[in-house]
């Protein structure tokens, strides 16, 4: 009887939550469609039309809209989440709603599963609190891990990208055309870094000043190599020096720094290996040193 009443209460609660969510979602979709229609009227030619069509396509993501509705309203927290999403490669604004939907949906689902297991199988009630707490923290940790992995790939592939750009510029192309050509050629091999440079070129084509676009490029990819590259490009924009020589020198410094880092790791490896090997060397030495004494002691007795 107790199990039946609990199941009935759970079904009623779920139905109420679903009906309330549907009403809220319907209202939000109507407001968003009106806003999208206004933005379409403001769209211009070229890439602006492309982004306007993409905006309309994103409005069909109902669970993204629901995630923004149930997510945090703090501007600081939203800015932090957006920065983490951009570092992980999720640049569109709809991913903020998707993140909150996945996060709180996982919390609710884990709480319901633990409650059902507790009522049906006698599962420990502590897990009703532990599982939702873990699901509340897990999406953020996964997002940070994805961001670090992606930024690591960008830093790793940056020297190859710059070398290809130098080859194209030596053939007579300007550096923006060279970047576009290399991004098209290496898209299948190094998609992360090519996507970032293509986005940079799109910003410049839309009319964003080059220095501002480069600074935004550094903000999206907060790594030491990207920061150094952006400083070199901004300095070139201000002083008008040879960008081919600057990129060649920057690429050479990157290779030297990586070579020094590898030599440093190799030098530390011997000391680390000694700590692991030492016990295996000491045991035979002690056996040889004390074995004879132990035998003689055993014979004496």
Short summary of the structure?
86% of the residues lie in helices and 0% in strands. The protein has 301 residues and is mainly α. It is flat and about 95 Å long.
What do these coordinates show?
The chain has 301 residues and is an all-alpha fold. It is built from 11 helices and no strands. The chain is flat.
List the helices and strands and how they pair.
Layout: H1 2-42, H2 47-58, H3 62-70, H4 75-87, H5 94-121, H6 127-170, H7 175-185, H8 191-206, H9 210-220, H10 224-239, H11 243-300
Helix pairs in contact: 1-2, 1-3, 3-5, 4-6, 5-6, 6-7, 6-11, 7-8, 8-9, 9-10, 10-11
Unreliable runs, pLDDT <50, ≥5 residues?
Answer: 41-52
Radius of gyration equals: 29 Å
SSE class:
mainly alpha
Largest sheet: none
Broad shape: flat
Strand content of the residues, in percent?
under 5%
N- and C-termini, Cα separation: 77 Å
Rounded average pLDDT: 76
Protein traits:
mainly alpha, 301 residues
